[in-house]
Amino acid sequence: MAPYLIRKYQESDRKWVVRLLSQGMAEHIPATFRHVLKLPRTLVLLLGGPLALLLVSGSWLLALMFSFALLLVLWFLAGRPWKEYVDMALRTDMADITKSYLSEPGSCFWVAESEKRVVGTVGALPVDDPTLQEKWLQLFHLSVASDHRRRGIAKTLVRTVLQFARDQGYSEVVLDTSTMQLSAQALYQGMGFQKMGQCFRTLSERLVDVHEVHFIYHLPSAQAGGR
C-alpha cells in the first residue's frame, strides 16, 4: 500500500482535481438510473406506454422503440444532476481554486498525494450567512480516486478540515451530500456528523427524486476544550 501525503493545493494539481471531481460525480449515474427505474411514475411509463402504443397501433416495433427511447431519456435525466453539479462548480469556486480557497485565512483546499499523483481532495469555505451568530465552515468536494479507497484517505481529509476549523475558531462544520451517496453518508455519520435535513437543490434532482442531505458537526467551544 503506497503512502499518501495531505498537503495544500497547488496550481499544478488542477488537472487531477478536476478529473477527480468529474469522475466522482459520474460514478453516481448508474445508481441514480436504477433508482429512477424503480420510481412508481417510471414504472407506469415503462409498462403503460408501450402497452398503450401496442393496443393503438398494433405494432410491437413501435412499442419497443418507445421503450428504448424512454430508457435513453431516463439515463439522460439520471446523469443531469451530477453533470450540473460539475458544471456549476467549474463556473464558481472551482474556476479558480487558489483564489476561492487559498486567498483568505479562513478557507483552504487540500489534496491527498500518492506516488506523485493527486488521489483525494477536500475544500473548506466559511459559510456566508449574516444571520449566523457563530462562525460556520462548509466542507466541499470530498473525493477519493476509486483505486485508492478503503485506505483511510477520506477520513484523513475530513479530519484535516475539522482540525482546521478548530484552529480557525469555527463552531460548526457543515456539508451537503445526496441520498444516492450512501457511503459518504455513512462516513460522515461515523465521524460524528449529524443529519440536519434534506431538500431538492435543483429541478433535475426533483425529477429523479434525489435529495440533497445536510450534515453538521458541532465543534467543542474553546472554553470547553481548555478544561
TrEMBL record:
<dbReference type="InterPro" id="IPR050769">
    <property type="entry name" value="NAT_camello-type"/>
</dbReference>
<protein>
    <submittedName>
        <fullName>N-acetyltransferase 8</fullName>
    </submittedName>
</protein>
<keyword id="KW-1133">Transmembrane helix</keyword>
<keyword id="KW-0808">Transferase</keyword>
<dbReference type="GO" id="GO:0016740">
    <property type="term" value="F:transferase activity"/>
</dbReference>
<feature type="transmembrane region" description="Helical">
    <location>
        <begin position="51"/>
        <end position="78"/>
    </location>
</feature>
<dbReference type="InterPro" id="IPR000182">
    <property type="entry name" value="GNAT_dom"/>
</dbReference>
<dbReference type="InterPro" id="IPR016181">
    <property type="entry name" value="Acyl_CoA_acyltransferase"/>
</dbReference>
<keyword id="KW-0812">Transmembrane</keyword>
<dbReference type="Pfam" id="PF00583">
    <property type="entry name" value="Acetyltransf_1"/>
</dbReference>
<keyword id="KW-0472">Membrane</keyword>
<feature type="domain" description="N-acetyltransferase">
    <location>
        <begin position="72"/>
        <end position="220"/>
    </location>
</feature>
